[in-house]
Structures are given as structure tokens and as C-alpha cells.
Design brief:
19% of the residues are buried. By secondary structure, the protein is an all-alpha fold. It has one domain: Tetracycline Repressor, domain 2, CATH 1.10.357.10. It has eight helices and no strands. Helix content is 71%, strand content 0%. The protein starts with a helix and ends in a 7-residue tail after the last helix.
Length: 149
């Protein structure tokens, strides 16, 4: 049961390092860096730079050269993590989706009353959207570029 935002934030413990470590572990087949601490640190730089650049100029207008300049990685260094922008957006979006789904399911798992379950799911989603606001903003802004169904 979610009491308030501060309790939610403390309980969820979403450190950037923790998120990037999980992201690295989920993508070891694509990421060519084998040292987890280095990979985790650089993934954080890549994601922070991507979200910053996408916010200022848009993801589709951003180039991998822009990303290298902003993150401080070389092109070769960047290619050890992603092959192209499609890999980058997949990396960011898939992890955000998994994190959101896992969090929502965690907070409604033991609730049987449908009204209370919906209430807790909404509260968890609103609180999570505050905690990972850059990712939600990125997702919202890039939704207009999704192909028609």
C-alpha cells in the first residue's frame, strides 16, 4: 500500500547506477563491454546525454556524433554499446517499459478489490512518473514519431 510520495521513493530506490546495471545485464548479448562497472557508468552517460539532447533538439534530429560530443565517448566507444539509434531507442524504451510494468505489478499484487487496485496503480504510476520524469517526457515526445498502426 502506497502511503505517500516520500515513502514510495524510499521504498522503490531507483538509483541511476542500479537501473543502468540492470540494463547492462539485460543486454549483455548486444553490449560488447565486459566490465560491468565501466559499462554501467557509460550507459548512464549515454542515457543522460540522449535524454538531454532529445529534450533540446528531438531524438530524430540528434545524431550519434552529437551523442558522442555530449557524453564524452568516442564513436568507437559508443558503438560498443549500440549499433545505431534504433538500438539506442530500444535500449531506453524497453527498460523504461519493464521498470514501469514491474513497479505497477509490485504495488497491486496483493490487492483484490478492483477499485483499490486501480487506485493504487494510478498512484504508483503518478509517483513513478515523477521519479523518472526524463524518461516519461522522452517517451511522450517521441510517441509522435511512432509508425501508424
Amino acid at each position: 500500500m502506497i502511503k505517500d510520495f516520500e515513502a514510495f521513493k524510499a521504498e522503490l530506490s531507483l538509483s541511476k547506477e542500479e537501473i543502468c546495471r540492470e540494463l547492462y545485464q539485460e543486454n549483455t548479448d548486444k553490449i560488447r563491454i565486459k566490465k560491468e562497472t565501466t559499462a554501467t557508468r557509460n550507459l548512464a552517460r549515454i542515457i543522460d546525454s540522449t535524454l538531454r539532447l532529445a529534450n533540446s533538439k528531438g531524438f530524430h534530429a540528434m545524431t550519434l556524433r552529437d551523442l558522442c560530443a555530449d557524453s564524452g565517448l568516442s564513436m568507437g566507444g559508443l558503438y560498443a554499446y549500440i549499433r545505431n539509434k534504433d538500438d539506442l531507442i530500444h535500449l531506453i524504451q524497453s527498460h523504461g517499459f519493464k521498470l514501469t510494468r514491474r513497479t505497477l505489478l509490485q504495488y497491486i499484487a496483493d490487492i483484490h478489490d478492483p477499485v483499490e487496485k486501480l487506485s493504487q496503480a494510478i498512484r504508483a504510476h503518478v509517483f513513478l512518473s515523477e521519479l523518472i520524469r526524463p524518461w516519461f517526457f522522452f517517451s511522450y515526445m517521441e510517441a509522435k514519431r511512432l509508425p501508424p498502426v
